[in-house]
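SUBJECT: A protein chain and its fold
Encoding: whole-number codes for local backbone shapes
RECORD BEGINS BELOW THIS LINE
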Amino acid sequence: MYTLGINAVFHDSAACLLKDGQLIAAAEEERFTHFKHGKRPVPFSTWELPFHAIDYCLRVADIHINDINHVAYSFDPYLLVGEQYRGKSTIEIPFENGGKIDNNDWLNVWDPLFLSSIMNARAQLNDGYPHHLQKRFIGANIKPEQWHYVEHHVAHAASAFNCSPFNEAAVMTVDGRGELATTTYNFGSGQQLTRIGQVNMPHSLGLLYEQVTNHLGFLHSSDEYKVMALASYGNTDFVKDFREMITLSANGQYTITNQNFTERFGPQRLSHHEFTSHHFNIAHSLQLVVEETLLDISSWLQKETGSGNLCMAGGVALNCVANARIRDAKVFNNIWVQPASGDDGTALGAALWIDAQQRKSNQREFVMDHAYWGPEYSDDEIEKFMKWCKLPYRRMENVAEETAEVLAQDKIIGWYQNRMEFGPRALGSRSILASPINPDMQARLNEVKDREDFRPVAPVVLEEEAGNWFEGADYSPFMLFIYDVKADKADRIPAVRHTDGTARIQTVNEQQNKKYYNLLKAFYRKTGVPVLINTSFNTLGKPIVCTPRDAIECFWSSPFDALIIGSFIIEKNADISSNPNIQATTITRKMPESASVAVAE
């Protein structure tokens, strides 16, 4: 049985495909369209389905859309449709921006347009596909009984619990908003979830973080992670202000008062203006109070469920500093966070939820122990494309050893291998890598990626060496927790040590990613350091690269030193004439099939 999961409501549009309960493909739409987050979260974009991501999933299974048994869509519009509209075929929408409608049921006057697009999503899937993707969509006929709306926070919760390593766990989801809920508490057992409680709109930790993100001059629903990084430079000047905004009560409930941030904190920072200590202090105070709140409600949830395990999802669960705060409080014995905790992960959660229901399965059949579910390209496809582009390249005899030698020379490389990661973190398939030994490397990488100076870079470390370099570290494959850099190692890896002494680590073992692991081992042998800098293979405002074309365009338009793509290396300033191993070919003008795929995707 094939179950297709779709997220298309707010942002981070994505699709995934299950076959008999097993995940076989998952990807974000942004990787194919090059529009970060797929789209902006406005009512007018709700009709856009992630057709490119869906097409990729269908290609992996080599099936047509009509071979899908069930489609799970991670939002239930009927939770927002008032009783007066039940069974009606029309709905009132404002004619102009700022127009009024005579209905108090809506949180926003554009909600009717928003919901109408969602309720017509099945029809859009059947006949709204792009022309160049018609091979797997032409004649589409997904029927009403195959289409399932899944509550947004059920999808978040299932994405956390139903592919975790636990058979029972407390489950907490925290984000900006779903239909009504912004935070939910559940108990998971087998493949079932029991809702214990929830916090509803307009009270939302996620939206509070978004609003402060916007006040600090960043793009909300996009740049919240920058606020988290900025926070480590500030102090607690505004903690009292944020504590006044959030009121905690019994049973995991909280309320947030509506705020005028300009009145409370002064003028909004414009995106091109410099940061001051004032901005650092706002970020730091927000982060601290959100951590306190999450710790309080997670403590209540543990007592309520009695479980030693916690699963988390929702955009707020990508806050690795807050996750570490809950971990270090030892409220739970074990914590598992969905690596695609943003709305992209709801495609997976919705599919897992519907698949288990339709197959009447309560046995755990899938554990997500890695995030490599996206497209991959063979050496043959990569080489054909490079020849077509007339690029200078050479095939390496030992990828790990030769790449480690380049990194040991303090060069910055693009690393493009195997299947692309699902979720916002680059985890060694579409990464920029560098040595952590030179303290100037963080600044160099921020320049290469054209991003803010305060942004830290993250380390990847051999799993078996993690505890020797980072306090208490063992298994952390998804970059979702921070750890203190050990005092006796701080001077050896200064580039990955954040200003507060922490690092957001990724551990890797041979089973998860053999090529990546072998590279780290080779670098360890050469330098005595089992750590590399790993940051995402993209530049400012762009999604992580997907195809060979994406990787090559990013490489040639940025000051990297080398690109390791499959078994090949491209080096800038390479002397083609003096190196017989470098391929420089004269070819016909016929584009190879692999290049066509790269263009289409």
